[in-house]
Write a structure and sequence with these properties.
351 residues; alpha+beta; Lambda Exonuclease, Chain A; three-stranded antiparallel β-sheet; 10 helices; 11 strands; 15% strand
Length: 351
């Protein structure tokens, strides 16, 4: 099929260990659950809490650009309550909303371009061996022995960079999860980029990736069942999750001076922060050199990019300090309490 590009699944740089019994039933269809269109938003969210959906698989194994395992763990353990009334799919300023709105048009254009018949899926499925492994497909491809699943995506200009070299890893993981649950052999990913360019990629079932996925997802789900948080991974999502998990301190100061592990961790932190300071200073020097070269010019072009140094427009803001000095009672009349947050402060031992 000339209109479809092949997209091999990305196997992470670890040696996967296949779970027992996976090979004996890897191509058996999943267990079909009630139709999703018959569920209320609250029932749908309750279903999601019972396992790992295909759109959550990349987060569960630490390969989602926007969500960490720790953030997903907070949701699955009920520490972050998802309000059905504030679901992103109901907010017209959220990318997920437009993805859902445009999904039928992407499927229609996929069918027109490929000649494949597609059918909207209104049911949910779970793996026959792993109850926590769930999936809800977009569309089925009907009457084509080489491909059975259609995943539709819409991508804005910002996220288009993830698709420069084909299907990004987190989407490949989502699709392999779907193939694992449903027992299907292949899926097409139809992605509309920037609202005007449709690309179609083929993803074949990869047993090695599926075995790796099942292993890591099982570990994640075990952490949910045991109420033990996965380790933070350094992402902004993990930092936000830590702030939610431990929003307050109790005033205790731990004495870790006798711990080799934690002293080594702290010393590594000091070393990295020193390197970052050196890099920041060097970056500032390079930036200032370019500013000197620009002088009163607005910008410059280079072989690998460009810079600009332009004056922003003047703006008018309220001088609250002067206002409150002149009318101090306003603070009592119109108070705005901002909830405090924990600050991470590092102090190196003076030498």
């Amino acid at each position: 099929m000339s209109n479809v590009q092949s997209a091999g699944a990305a196997v992470p740089a670890v040696h996967p260990v296949a779970p027992q019994s996976t090979s004996t039933s890897s191509h058996r269809p999943g267990i079909v659950l009630p139709e999703s269109r018959d569920l209320s938003p609250a029932q749908w969210l309750a279903f999601r809490m019972q396992g790992i959906g295909s759109s959550e698989a990349a987060a569960a194994v630490g390969l989602d650009p926007w969500s960490s395992p720790l953030a997903l763990w907070l949701e699955k353990t009920g520490r972050v309550v998802v309000d059905p009334d504030t679901d992103p799919l109901a907010q017209d300023d959220h990318p997920a909303f437009w993805g859902k709105v445009l999904e039928p048009f992407v499927a229609q254009q996929y069918a027109r371009r490929t000649g494949n018949r597609v059918r909207k899926v209104h049911t949910m499925s779970k793996h026959r061996l792993y109850d926590w492994m769930r999936a809800s497909l977009d569309y089925q491809v009907v009457g084509n022995a080489s491909v059975q699943v259609l995943e539709c995506k819409t991508v804005g200009l910002y996220a288009a960079r993830y698709w420069e070299h084909g299907v990004p890893e987190y989407v490949q993981i989502q699709v392999q999860h779907q193939l694992a649950v449903t027992g299907k052999q292949a899926a097409d990913v139809a992605v509309l980029i920037g609202g005007q360019e449709l690309r179609i990629h083929r993803i074949e079932r990869d047993e090695e990736v599926i075995a790796w996925l099942v292993e890591l997802e099982a570990k994640f789900w075990q952490s949910v069942q045991q109420d033990l948080p996965p380790a933070a991974d350094g992402s902004e999502s993990a930092q936000q999750a830590l702030a939610r998990l431990y929003p307050r301190d109790r005033g205790e100061v731990l004495d870790l001076t006798d711990s080799e592990v934690w002293n080594a961790t702290f010393e590594q932190l000091l070393a990295v922060r020193a390197e970052l300071e050196d890099c920041k200073g060097f970056e500032a020097k390079l930036r200032q050199s370019l500013c000197e070269r620009l002088g009163e010019a607005s910008g410059a072009r280079f072989r690998q990019g460009s810079i600009s140094w332009k004056r922003s427009k003047d703006s008018t803001t309220l001088d609250t300090a002067r206002l409150l000095k002149a009318q101090p009672d306003l603070l009592n009349q119109y108070p705005l309490i901002r909830e405090g947050s924990r600050r991470f402060v590092v102090k190196a031992q003076e030498t």
